[in-house]
């Protein structure tokens, strides 16, 4: 028994959780960069449409992020408190609800791609490409939903290696099929952006099947197909209590980014393409930092469930101490070599000039983003999700989005002003998250709860004697 407990505790070691997440994210970044490079061989307009569409899809994922994210935290907390059967039930419920939401979104994107693109201010010259790409990839929203909830559930049991290997396989398949469809290789027809869309959906379908098989065996008691009829209102309410602010928080970020993409579209297709290329490069800066922050969230939720509040408190600072220097170094590397890398994607001089300026601004952006990732995820892990939601509602929309429109579009200061507003938003929320974490509000509540339980147990023992 002692060995089993040790193995379970070891699964939730910060580094053991973080390194598979890092490898998964790093390889996805590399393969995503290759994907963008391949699409750029079609045209800069194709890149802009893919970037714009991905922002739309990310925005729509917030509709099921409430369940998926909340379920992940509850699963880790339940395992920490040794309520394995409840963790299993939460996993099943979250899959059913998330898949249903994904199916509805798939139908909507297949039926109305053109009106959606028009509503989001996509330039007219890009609409024909959007009419091709959005219904095919958007029609697979149910697959995105399934991948999100299955991967989250599995990771929060302490198994970060499984989703890593599956994600790597998915991206390799996607790149191989992309190459075939874009260049007519391996006997594939040369289908351009249509082929890219087909390869995206196909690779996600394969990943969903493999993740589902792994999910069936991820808890102590294996899940049977008949178990998917289970629904526990008490546990689902617990998921929603943690999850709905997470969903709103995620929606704030994604929809604010979508709004900013719309502002960039108003400025022109070059600004939109520049932001898309920068999204790819920026991912490099915070890969390990993001991995540490996500690992810290899993670890802290587990420690919080087990009542180890002091260890949970320190874990956030460990992730932050390692992550901040890493993102600073990575951002500096991009400043030095970024222009050479960008020249692989586009030869447009105007786009390159914009991107080089944004690389310097990225050096200021990333440390603030790292603080948000580490401390924001830590607050979420202990259930303090309403606080992160509130500061997101205020500052993402007032500073990042509202000021971006006023300064970037209305006053005509362009993409530089928009980036400046994004930087200000990250630092404001980072400082507020730090102050909240230092206050230990939810950790103290947990300690008081445990003390009352101990006193109650002592009283019952005393009466029995």
TrEMBL record:
Domain of life of the organism encoding this protein: Bacteria
TM spans (from-to): 12-31, 56-77, 89-112, 132-153, 165-188, 194-219, 286-304, 316-337, 349-366, 387-407
Record-linked InterPro entries: MATE_fam, MdtK-like, YsiQ
Bilayer disposition of the protein: Multi-pass membrane protein
Keywords: Cell membrane, Membrane, Transmembrane, Transmembrane helix, Transport
Compartments where located: Cell membrane
Main location: membrane
PANTHER family, A to Z: MULTIDRUG AND TOXIN EFFLUX PROTEIN MATE FAMILY (PTHR42925), NA+ DRIVEN MULTIDRUG EFFLUX PUMP (PTHR42925:SF2)
Record's protein name: Transporter YisQ
Organism for this UniProt entry: Paenibacillus aceti
Lineage: Bacteria, Bacillati, Bacillota, Bacilli, Bacillales
């Amino acid at each position: 028994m002692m060995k089993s407990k040790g193995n379970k505790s070891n699964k939730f070691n910060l580094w053991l959780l973080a390194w598979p997440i890092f490898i998964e994210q790093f390889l996805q970044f590399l393969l995503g960069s290759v994907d963008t490079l391949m699409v750029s061989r079609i045209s800069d307009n194709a890149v802009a449409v893919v970037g714009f569409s991905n922002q739309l899809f990310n925005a729509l994922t917030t509709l099921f992020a409430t369940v998926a994210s909340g379920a992940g935290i509850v699963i880790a907390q339940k395992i920490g408190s040794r309520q394995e059967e409840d963790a299993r039930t939460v996993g099943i419920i979250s899959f059913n609800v998330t898949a249903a939401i994904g199916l509805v979104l798939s139908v909507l994107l297949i039926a109305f791609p053109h009106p959606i693109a028009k509503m989001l201010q996509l330039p007219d010259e890009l609409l024909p490409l959007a009419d091709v790409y959005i219904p095919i990839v958007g029609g697979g929203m149910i697959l995105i939903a399934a991948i999100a909830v299955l991967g989250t559930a599995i990771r929060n049991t302490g198994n970060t290696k499984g989703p890593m290997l599956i994600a790597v396989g998915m991206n390799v398949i996607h790149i191989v099929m992309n190459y075939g469809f874009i260049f007519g290789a391996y006997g594939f027809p040369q289908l351009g952006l249509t082929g890219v869309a087909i390869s995206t959906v196909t690779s996600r379908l394969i990943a969903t099947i493999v993740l589902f098989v792994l999910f069936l065996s991820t808890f102590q008691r294996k899940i049977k197909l008949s178990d998917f009829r289970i629904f526990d209102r008490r546990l689902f309410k617990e998921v929603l209590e943690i999850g709905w602010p997470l969903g709103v928080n995620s929606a704030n970020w994604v929809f604010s980014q979508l709004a900013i993409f719309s502002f960039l579209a108003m400025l022109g297709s070059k600004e939109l393409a520049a932001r898309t290329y920068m999204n790819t490069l920026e991912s490099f800066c915070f890969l390990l930092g993001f991995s540490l922050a996500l690992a810290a969230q899993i670890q802290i939720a587990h420690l919080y469930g087990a009542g180890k509040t002091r260890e949970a408190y320190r874990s956030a600072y460990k992730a932050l101490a390692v992550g901040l220097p890493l993102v600073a170094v990575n951002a500096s590397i991009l400043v030095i070599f970024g222009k050479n890398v960008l020249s692989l994607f586009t030869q447009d001089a105007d786009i390159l000039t914009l991107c080089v300026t944004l690389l310097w601004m990225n050096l200021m952006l990333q440390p603030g983003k790292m603080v948000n990732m580490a401390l924001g995820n830590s607050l979420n892990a202990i259930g303090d999700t309403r606080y992160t939601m509130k500061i997101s509602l205020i500052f993402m929309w007032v500073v990042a989005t509202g000021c971006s429109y006023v300064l970037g579009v209305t006053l005509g200061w362009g993409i530089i002003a928009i980036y400046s507003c994004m930087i200000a938003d990250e630092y404001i929320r980072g400082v507020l998250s730090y102050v909240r974490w230092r206050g230990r509000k939810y950790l103290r509540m947990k300690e008081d709860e445990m003390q009352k339980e101990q006193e109650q147990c002592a009283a019952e023992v005393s009466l029995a004697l």
